[in-house]
Amino acid sequence: MLGVQAYLALQKKIMKKLNALLFHQGGKCFYCDEQLDIKEASIDHIIPRAKGGKDDVDNLVVCCKYANHAFADCSPKQKMLVIKDIIHSPLLCQKLFPRSEEVKEVKEVIEVIESQANNKTDENDISIAYALLLQAIDSFEKEGKAASSSIVKIEMLKIEPSFKEATYGFKQFSKFLLSAEQDKIITLELQRKNNYLIKKYIK
């Protein structure tokens, strides 16, 4: 257990590194390029430590703590798939990562869908995307967790990294969720601004 002096020294070292990284990023979040308040900032490992990532400067960036919590141990590829959606829309970043201390960490990969060589199914079939959404909800339920709109897409990308709502004609992930609700696949319940609790539709 760290003593008080050792703890304070460690925090000072972390803050020094955070300030230096944020300065080199021009005071902006690495992921959405918005100005970032130091109070909202945290250091993220591009390659997570859980996957062998190191603490050297080439593997560190500064982003908002909410994105950091949600990304947890996502791989760089999984992160990039989400970043593609927010790079031109900082407001979407706030929808994906709500400004709340209660943001839950994204779960580790539970299952990866195996590609089948003889699969003739149409890639644009919306039922494929709905099935993926339900699988993501299942993964949260197995852990006794609630699925919410702020993190369910990240879980979907963990299961199927190639998922893009644009493939099915949706410019925004929220539009995809609304379509799933209209088709009676899921129900959406507003929890707080821009964040919905997602449940399977029960007939």
Describe the structure.
The chain has 203 residues and is of the alpha+beta class. It has two domains: 14-106, Orthogonal Bundle (DNA Binding (I), subunit A); 107-203, LOTUS domain-like (Nucleotidyltransferase, domain 5, 2-Layer Sandwich), CATH 3.30.420. 40% of the residues lie in helices and 12% in strands. The protein has helices at 4-24, 65-71, 76-86, 90-96, 126-142, 152-159, 173-182; strands at residues 41-45, 60-64, 147-148, 186-192, 195-200. Strands 3-5-4 form a three-stranded antiparallel sheet. The protein has a two-stranded antiparallel ribbon with strand order 1-2. It starts with a helix and ends with a strand. Mean pLDDT is 77; it is low at 101-123.
Keywords for this structure?
203 residues; alpha+beta; DNA Binding (I), subunit A; three-stranded antiparallel sheet; 7 helices; 5 strands
Number of helices: 7
> Strand order across the biggest sheet?
3-5-4
**CATH C-level class of the largest domain:** Alpha Beta
The average pLDDT value, as a whole number, equals 77
The total count of strands amounts to: 5
Low-confidence stretches: 101-123
Strand content: 5-15%
Q: Major beta sheet, specifics?
A: 3 strands, antiparallel
Name of the CATH superfamily of the largest domain: LOTUS domain-like
Radius of gyration, rounded? 19 Å
